């Protein structure tokens, strides 16, 4: 098919199919517009429009000066995120609690040694983070890795859609003390996962998320 006969929807559909097929994994940078034009058999203008559309739907994320990265492989995270924005903070926290409590059940049984090592690395970064933003970033990474350890792609997609500002702590805290950062609670959860202790992992995450609920609701009034 020549570039001139490509309809507006075709580059979007082709790019979406490539993302779903895992051509570029979540977190990876996609090729630039010129390279994508060749891959998608479309004009650079059509490619730019396709990328903008998929950024809007949540599959891609554009970072100025860095490029465009894969955020998800389906539109589900974007849809969940839009829905969560209209929900009460308490409802969003309850959704996180339900999803993550079951996720650790699966993760405790399925987690690999490599994933445990990755969690330990992220937890160390979390412990030495010097400000609320850095702690929040490491915290999101820690919990995201646990959900990915379930091997359940649908659960991962749903989790990605949660609004970080509503359901993760520390983003609303001006200062962080060792007690507020809940390092020991995170370490307890990681130890239970490393031991493949399903019941212990569930208890640990439920205690941790109970603290998070109190902190976020208190901070947001």
From TrEMBL:
Keywords (A to Z) from UniProt: DNA-binding, Transcription, Transcription regulation
Coiled coil: none
GO terms of molecular function: DNA binding; DNA-binding transcription factor activity
Record flagged with keyword Phosphoprotein: no
Transmembrane regions listed in the UniProt entry: none
Cell wall biogenesis/degradation in keyword set: no
InterPro entries, A to Z: GntR_C, TF_FadR/GntR_C, Tscrpt_reg_HTH_GntR, WH-like_DNA-bd_sf, WH_DNA-bd_sf
Domain HTH gntR-type: start-end pairs: 5-73
Protein name, as recorded: DNA-binding transcriptional regulator, FadR family
Organism: Arthrobacter woluwensis
């Amino acid at each position: 098919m020549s570039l001139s006969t490509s309809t507006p929807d075709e580059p979007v559909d082709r790019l979406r199919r490539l993302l779903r097929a895992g051509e570029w994994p979540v977190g990876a940078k996609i090729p630039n517009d010129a390279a994508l034009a060749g891959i998608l058999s479309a004009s650079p203008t059509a490619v730019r429009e396709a990328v903008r559309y998929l950024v809007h739907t949540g599959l891609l994320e554009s970072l100025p000066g860095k490029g465009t990265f894969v955020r998800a492989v389906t539109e589900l995270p974007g849809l969940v995120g839009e829905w969560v924005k209209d929900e009460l903070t308490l409802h969003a926290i309850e959704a996180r609690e339900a999803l993550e409590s079951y996720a650790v059940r699966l993760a405790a049984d399925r987690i690999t040694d490599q994933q445990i090592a990755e969690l330990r690395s992220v937890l160390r970064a979390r412990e030495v983070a010097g400000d609320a933003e850095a702690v929040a970033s490491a915290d999101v990474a820690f919990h995201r890795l646990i959900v990915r350890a379930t091997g359940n792609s649908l659960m991962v997609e749903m989790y990605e859609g949660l609004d970080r500002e509503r359901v993760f702590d520390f983003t609303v805290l001006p200062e962080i003390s060792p007690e507020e950062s809940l390092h020991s609670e995170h370490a307890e959860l990681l130890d239970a996962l490393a031991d493949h202790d399903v019941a212990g992992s569930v208890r640990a995450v439920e205690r941790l998320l109970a603290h998070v609920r109190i902190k976020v609701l208190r901070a947001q009034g």
